[in-house]
Amino acid sequence: MKAVRRNSAPSVKPVVAPEHEFEAEFGLPEPLPAAERVLWQGQPQVGAIMRRVFHVPLVAGYFALLVGWSALSSWSDGASATALLRGLLTPVLLSAVGLGMLATLAWLTARTAVYTLTDRRVVMRIGIVLTVTYNFPLRCIDGAHVHPTGQGTGEIALQLERGTRIAWLHLWPHARPWHLREPQPLLRGLTDVGAVSALLSQAWSNVNGVAARPVAASTSSAAAGGPGALGSSQPAAGGAD
Q1: Over its length of 241 residues, how does the chain's per-residue pLDDT go in tens digits?
Q2: CATH number of domain containing 192
Q3: N or C: which end of the chain has fewer CB within 10 A?
């Protein structure tokens, strides 16, 4: 999504609030105003977090290469089958423990995150140990970059208006990779990314009074790594990293 922010839009920064012991509503630190309604709510898909954040398949492949190299070296040295198996026991167990830890972190990351889209804002409740809620009014969003990531999932990166200050590390892993100077909140592992992006575009248009339209990723500045700021006419869907 790409568009131009109206000059009359207020400059409101995202609110970061510590999570309370009990949520007023699922994923929300307090009840919504009576005039505001939830359009969509969801959580990251665990498999997508494992692949995109913790790179479990790559790490598993690396461990497999190490174990295979160890087995080949032992076999070429003339080790017996029993000795070879005993020698592989330790690296296999360590590999399993490491992969298990990564998988557990991925599961916790996905299960503790809740993304909420209302007709006024995007709310991100994230964090494993210290849970915080980020509140991004639609008037403060300059663009949204949609990126299908395969296996039925996708991501939406939110480009905030210039001057918005938010730490990349505070958002991670719900932050667009490599955008450190101007961090972009990232809705990860969405199984219905197309439907969510359509709802976001419509809600943004309603709030800002500007029509949203999708454009081909190959022709958008966002897909090419450009700024992707909201422009003088309409928002457009582009690619994310």
Answers
A1: 544 344 444 444 455 555 445 667 888 888 888 899 999 999 999 999 999 999 999 999 999 999 988 888 877 877 777 877 888 888 899 999 999 999 999 999 999 999 999 999 999 999 998 889 999 999 999 889 999 988 889 999 999 988 888 889 999 999 999 998 889 999 999 998 999 999 999 999 999 888 765 443 333 333 323 333 333 233 334 444 5
A2: 2.30.29.30
A3: C
Terminal C-alpha separation, the chain: 14
Domains identified in the chain, total number: 2
Query: Of 74, 109, 144, which marks where a domain is finished?
Result: 109
Domain that holds residue 146: 15-44+113-219
Instruction: Give the orientation angle of helix 56-76 with respect to helix 81-111, to 10 degrees.
Output: 170
pTM of the model: 0.78
